[in-house]
Amino acid sequence: MQSHEYQQYDATGLAELIRRREVSRADVLEAAFKAIEALNPALKAVVRTRFEKARRESEEIADDALFGGVPTLSKDLLMGLAGEPLASGCAALTQWRPKEDSPIIHRSKAAGLVVIGQTATPELGLMGITEPKAFPHPVNPWRKGYSPGGSSGGAAVAVASGIVPLALAGDGGGSIRIPASYCGLFGFKPTRGRMPLDPNHGEVWQGAVIEHALTRSVRDSAALLEKVNGMAPSGPYPVRAETGFVTALASSPKRLRIAVSLGEPLSRGLGTQLSSEVKTAVNKAAAALTEMGHEVEWCEPAVDGEALADSYLTLYLGHLAADLSWISQQTGVPMHRLAIEPSTRAIGRLGSKLLAQDYELAKRHWHVVAEQMSRFHQRFDALVMPVTADTAPEIGKLYPSAARERLMSVLAIPGASSLALKAGLLKRLAVDALGRTPFTQLANLTGQPAMSVPLHMAANGLPVGVQIVGRFGEDKQLLQLAAALERHDAWQHQLPLQAFRS
Predict the structure, then answer these.
(1) N or C: the chain end with fewer CB closer than 10 Å?
(2) pLDDT tens digits along 288-326
């Protein structure tokens, strides 16, 4: 199978070819290996490969497995492969190896996917860009020198460039939807509890994190969800596996009541500047949904964006402090000697100084926002709004400057972090971390399903996604709407390699 033939198909299409014996699993797998060898030196999406293990695992796949041997990539964060490195974008963990496959890896393999490598992520998945100091920085395949976003940046580059048709990814504050928007892909974040997590974690970031995938087609996302969904037996939520995600795509949803917003309440106080291209994308989505017969109304969600950002970052700080303590335990290296980035160390130090009552109050605010959105969805079935404030940034533009890193190093000094919290540094962190991407954390805090759909191409040659947030638990309805939009708008799943090579 030639590379150009391989790259024409989504995962479902490749699986159909294999099932009809028009191509062999081995041919498809070798085409993926060649794609990595040809493209990854420039794109830097994949941090490590496992070709020989993938070949052996491919031979063991059941004939009736849904994906039948289609290659995929896992994220170098949380998604453990038994006995293999899982560095989480961090130099301190380059030698750490989990003892067993994580649940999403185990179930993906059972569904017939073959994991051929792992994709780049920022250190510990902390940023909306993928520029870890310990690993190369993936490049947006639509335009040289531009970021694919994060934290599932490597996964997005791998799918957008045609290395694999789908890649496993995770989303704790927009980490599937942001790269999907920047790279012209479909990115779906399921409802909280819908997907299994590693038993060692149970839930990550108090349930804000959920794993799924980045895909070129809606049907691939739905098919994977069909096979992988359902909380692990030891999980914190009693969510059983469901079916019907794929069959739901065959028909258009009933006439829905859809709210459209430019996200002003969420960006208030964060200095966010919404670009004209993003406004155009949101307006385009509103027009398309109206043409499709839905009842569309401009309406802002009644949430306090500043309070939401503060509560999100409070738990973010607390969990990072816990993660660094865990890394120290796992590696046997004292926390003050861990090989981590200055900003990670400083933020972890801030988190270690949080009061338990502040942490608990922040989590309670999540439930306040969830109740507000529950009321909102009594009137509306879905909410359309931006994914990000602009198209993809240039690589290096959003990473902390040298001066900022020096400040972070000072904050890591014992005592300085307590003073920083008292001086209101959390607000400064909110502006720096969320000013460009204040729209995606909402669904993580409330647990609602949300997605980025690739509806617009900006004048600068970079894609712009539009976010649609659904009612809690209504994943099928949201996927059904995505499939209808895909048919209506004729999403062009073209590969941007020619633009990249020019």
Answers:
(1) C
(2) 999 999 999 999 999 999 999 989 989 999 999 999 999
Catalytic residue list: 75, 151, 175
**Rounded to whole angstroms, how far apart are CA atoms 75 and 106?**
14
Predicted confidence at residue 203, as pLDDT, reads: 85
On whether the CB atoms of residues 348 and 124 are closer than 8 A, the answer is: no
Place of tokens 């020619």: 498
Q: For residue 90, what are its two tokens?
A: 């961090």
Tokens of 311: 């509560």
Give residue for tokens 């399903």. 449
Rounded Cα distance, 89 and 326, in Å: 16
pLDDT above 50: residue 498: no
Q: What is the DSSP string of 312-379?
A: HHHHHHHHHHHHHHHHHHHHT--GGG----HHHHHHHHHHHT--HHHHHHHHHHHHHHHHHHHHHHHH
**Which tokens go with 251?**
């028909």
Cis link prior to 151 (omega < 30° from 0)? yes
Q: Quick check: 420 pLDDT over 60?
A: no
- Residue 296 φ then ψ, to 5°: -110, 130
> Do 388 and 439 touch, CB atoms closer than 8 A?
yes
For range 55-61, the mean pLDDT:
97
Q: Is the whole model's pTM more than 0.90, yes or no?
A: yes
